[in-house]
Amino acid sequence: MGDVVVLENVSKEYPLGKLVVPALKDVSLSIGAGEFVSIAGPSGSGKTTLLNLVGCVDTPTSGVVRVDGLDIGRLSERELTRLRLEKLGFIFQSFNLIAVLDTFQNVEFPLLLQGKLSHRERRDVVVELLERVGLGKHARHRPNELSGGQRQRVAIARALVTRPRIVLADEPTANLDTGTGASIVDLMKSINETQGTTFIFSTHDARVMKHADRVVRLEDGRVVSNGDDPSAHAAGTGAELAHREEPAPYLAGE
Amino acid sequence: MPLHMLTLTATLLLSAAAVPALALDADGMKKVLETIDERQRNAGDHKSLVYIQTKEKSREDVVMEAVVYRRDASDQFMILLLKPKAERGKGYLKIDKNFWMYDPTVGRWERRTERERIVGSDSRRADFDESRLAVEYASEYKGEEKLGKFTVHHIRLTEKPGADVPYPVTELWVDKETNNVLKRQDLAASGKLMRTVYTPKWKKVYSESKKEDVWYPAEIRIYDEVEKDNSTVVLIQEVDLRPLPENIFTKAWLESKSR
Amino acid sequence: MILLRIALRNIAATKVRTLIIGLLITFGTMLVVVGGSLLSTLDRSMARSIIGSVSSHLQLCDEGAKDALEFFSPPTGTPDLGQIRDFPKVKAALEALPEVEAVVPMGSDFAMVFSGNVMDVKIAELSAAVKRGDREKAQVLADHVHKNVVLLQESLRGLEGFVNLDDNKEERQVDLGNLATAASDEFWADFLDSPEEKLVFLENKVARLAMDAKMLFLRYLGTDTEAFRKNFDLFEVVKGEMIPPGRRGFLFSEFIYERQVKNQVAMRLDFIKENLEAGRTIKDDPKVASRVQQNVRQYKEILYQMDRQQTAQLVARLQELLEVEEKEPEKLLEQFLEMDDENFAVRYRFFYDEIAPAIVLYQVRIGDILTIRSYTRSGYATAVNVPVYGTFRFKGMEKSALAGVYNLMDLMTYRDLYGYMSPARKAEIASLKAETGVEEIDRASAEDALFGGDDGEAGGEDGGTRPSPGEGGPPPAADASSDGGFDEFAGIDMEEGGQRYGEALLRKVYPQEEIDTGVVTNAAVRLAAGVDLEVGRAAVEKAVREGGFGLSVIDWRQASGLVGQFLGVVWIVLFSAILIIFLVALVIINNSMVMATLDRTREIGTMRAIGAQRSYVLKMFLIESTVLGVGFGLLGTLLGSMLIVFLGRVGIPAVSDELYFLFAGSHLYPVLLPGHLVSAFVVVFLVSLASTLYPARLAARIQPVKAMGKED
User: Fold this and answer.
1) CB atoms within 10 A of CB B59
2) Containing structural domain, residue A235
3) What is the pLDDT of residue B85?
4) Which of A155, A182, C39, C459 is the most exposed place for a label (fewest CB within 10 A)?
């Protein structure tokens, strides 16, 4: 299996008034198909920037980002959007469900954007997926009628409904309590295992990181540990890191 | 010479000096007006055949022939239209202050005023009536002027109270030599010039009743000064001074003429 | 349709905003539908009024006319419309067009009609009776005149105090003396024995003191009466009969006849009756009450017209009706005319049963010969006689002063008043001129020509400024004819002119050719049934151009003058109101959509991240506002349509004369036109689209990054 994501000497700078704030500095990284990768690092280390670049919602200042073999710097706005729709799935920290749509409709939404499946096919796919994430009975509920965990399951279902190659999740458990967070990660892991979908998620939660095949650590916009290095991998499981990440983020809501 | 005579002489001399041309004094002017009146007056009846032709902008000329009957002694006056056929038998009859118009096509009499334009022309009833300048107007001498090759007196006449005249103010230009009126201008009370009238041809006819000649203007040219395109020519073609039938100045007589 | 679902959900989610926008759009569309339908119906009814009465579809008039043809503008003098130069040719050319049904020649002007004062009229009647030798009638009339003289003396007595202040004091004294003579019983005792002198006395010394001559001011339309009758379908004769084809004749507008020609007391009674029937009362409506008071003051209008016998009869009947002993007819009439809401009906009937037959109810009666005086622009009065055949009105517009403003006459009479002369008259005048041979002298050079030269002017054979002494002078003895005598009647047949000439004119039946030839200031063009106004206009304009007639073609709207412009103003007001409402709606929708865009940044970012294209976001917004627009637009259209259907059933009452005319009747029944529904819809659709363009573009630019990170 080849690499689905490749970053070559990627830098990203944001203008902030007259200053230019570097977010990523010369990052090179590759992630193979079917990997379950965690991006770790303190706040402001460039986790979100990295995910945005991989998620094709942002472009690098320099360097090359390849997603499924395509250099995203060479793609147009429309093509990037198309790429996101076809190849990527997103799970957001704040779930980002469409408030006016119910569970079923939220999950169905990307399929409608794709416009490839018939009404019946969409229904079958969505119903099956909702069963899979344990929301079979909540198909007609609106997001505000669901708990945080349920909402994130809806979000996962939405991210998976198009059978994307890569699912990106930015702090997927940050707004959930510990138990719920764990079950969400379990769900993601099981999908990763059964379907071979590549998962790339950021987190500061060490318990979440434990489930990762590989942890990429960022500090000040640089990759400090690639995760290919077994020692770094080992260190990633250490208590020392968790310690630095206080206060504990296992809080529901917000 | 008594003192008052001297003063009078001095005053006359002074007033004569004030007017550059040879002025007429009040008496002289009165005399001129009286001469004009007297020459046209007839002791008995007066009948004339007149032709009236009026031009108006963008319209056919109004043309007609009429007889004017007058008995000045009793202030009686009548006009009977002869031509054209459409107007034939129409007439005006003045009795006291009433000025009646008769229309035979309806057999109806209507009251009109001194301002009536006689059958739509620019002439007024007074143009056909006896001249009474000395009686009806107060006069003012304006000076001696030239009118063409004639030397004329310019006299301003103002209506006396109670006089029934069509225009309150009239200016006259009178031939110095013959005392014939050659030109007159009629003004409204506001001073606006209403019409200019020329009487270039004077004729006279011997009157048995007066035992003297009676003068009349054979041609009267009237220019409307308000509607500048309008003008009227009146020709007095014939004058007959023989006595008229006694009962002629009545409605019945005029009515009988168109039956 | 997920987008529709999202849009609906969003609309439902923001109730206040939706309500405000909804109200605006609903109201706006209602306005379009209701206003549009009302005005269109009004336009139709006006078209009916104006086309069916005097204008027809198109009007032709001289291209170079100084004034515009305006049928229903307030009179400001005689407009200078020029002339249609060769009407028969124009008529032939246009009537040959398939689009044109008929061309009707016209001309309009104002005229005055005087009726002598009652005294003059009565004395004239008396004079006529005397001449006929009808002693019985003469006695009755003499009594009548005597009574009127006494009444006049009484009414002038009040003015005696002023006599001393008068300039013409002596004259006034003489007048009053004459009046006293004519009022005395001695004057009348042997009246019928020698009436002639007394009649002259009455005519000239007494009657002129009664200064109550009436004047009617009439607007008239001269036309080919037969063509008019055929081509103006609202035209109908009310009283009397139609002017026979080819004849001279006059038809009063029924409205004018009833309001102005009628005896004033009777007219006021009619007015009061009409108002009472409309639910007003004498007690509460000052306008009605003032009419009652005017009548009380003008009892003389009635009394002057009654002779002694009639007066005595009236006294008896009034005593009976009023149950009083009063013997003075003045007092009785005053009491009678002092009407209130209770006794009005009875007294109104009494008036028409007992009084009306004894008086002249109309100044001009049908069958009378009317003498019309018209002033030309130069102020010269012409008078023409024309028989009154009857009255007419335009169907359904009986009460409209505007529709009733024109009286109708034949073209021949019109041309006489205009000053046009027939070829025969022209020839007569020309020969008269030639006979006399007056030299024309220009005003500017008059003095030079008359008094300047040394030519034969002075003292020539035809007389000069200074007649030679020999010209007059005493004639040779016994030559009576040398007084310059002439016989004015030589060669003139008095019977040929005057009365007979006039009578012949009134009897003459004019052939069509003569009717068409002569002055025509404007002409109505009636289009064939089903021909569109603009199509017809284009065809007529083309024919006019090709024929080189030099005419301008205007439609009924322009030709109507102020009335037509009125509708234009109403249209502008309506358009402005609609424009303002939709502008406000546009701004509000725009603002609220911008707010919504900001509120929904995260949601939109999420959609974009998930894979929605910009166009998708754009569409989402446009659909939302379109749903709003179409939804409330439908509601507004529905409400507006319901209102129009309702109004169409009950009708909008015409509360004023002007409305009566505009409505072409007592009520306007608005009709719903599909065109207005469509335009309402289009307008709403465009407005909602326009108002969303900016916020939708704003939304489409939201970056997918906005979906990332924490919620605010």
Assistant:
1) 18
2) 3-96+168-244
3) 82
4) C459
